[in-house]
Amino acid sequence: xxxxxxxxxxxxxxxxxxxxxHRRTKKIQEANLQWKRVWWPQGKRWVRLRLxxxxxxxxxxxxxxxFAKEAGLDLTRC
Length: 78
Prior knowledge:
The structure is a single chain. The protein has a single domain, classed as CATH 2.30.170.40. The chain is elongated and about 55 Å long. A hairpin with a 5-residue loop joins β1 (13-18) and β2. It is of the alpha+beta class. The protein is built from two helices and four strands. The strands form two sheets. The chain has a two-stranded antiparallel sheet with strand order 1-2. A two-stranded antiparallel sheet has the order 3-4. Helices cover 23% and strands 36% of the residues. The longest helix has 10 residues, at 53-62. It has helices at 53-62, 64-71, and strands at 13-18, 24-29, 33-40, 45-52.
């Protein structure tokens, strides 16, 4: 599984680490991903998802079903 949020699709970003003398080296900025168990009331079970912290905050306001439908995620396979 790629390091990607299952609901928002956030993933790593390429950038530069710039030193004081302005020398630039490549670096990768990973998304802040967490494994999260979320209760799915329609399925009457827990679903384990790899979510970004932004998605966890949005999940509390939108709800799991609405967010998954928006992302096109099938919760029966999770």
